[in-house]
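Q: I'm writing a short methods note and want an example of a predicted protein-small molecule complex. Could you take the sequence and the SMILES for 2-acetamido-2-deoxy-beta-D-glucopyranose and return the bound structure as tokens? Please keep the output block clean; save any remarks for afterwards.
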Amino acid sequence: MVRFVALLIVLGFVCCSCSVSNGGKLGGRTEITDVKTNKEVQDLGKYSVDQYSLQHQGELGGTGNLNFVEVVEAQMQVVSGMKYYLKVNATQNGASKMFDAVVVVKPWDQSKELVQFSPYAN
Ligand SMILES: *[C@@H]1O[C@H](CO)[C@@H](O)[C@H](O)[C@H]1NC(C)=O
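A: Understood, no commentary inside the block.
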């Protein structure tokens, strides 16, 4: 039974990468259209701001923390896991700022990692 489930999971991943490569863009990014109502994407946006704040405590000028507002745009890419490219609205000292965040999620061990967080480049 365990083996059967494992096989299904493997088939699922193979199938995923097929449909991505069939689009002619191997590992291409897919736009997520329901960003504002997509709880997982919003949670990942909050996670990215929280992680960044944790990693940069004391470097933000000390006068105010970065506060998550919302994710306004998101794309995802199938890699070894899912890579989410988020455009995040956050406020710092009351001023609204946009950031580019990249989070990799590995569903099989429920891990996620912030791999990039930088001011949004227009
Ligand atoms: C970001 O959020 C702030 C506060 O809600 C809002 O005033 C601002 O218009 C938002 N910016 C964008 C680009 O969505």
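A: Remarks, as requested: The chain has one domain: 2-119. The domain at 2-119 is CATH 3.10.450.10 (Nuclear Transport Factor 2; Chain: A,).
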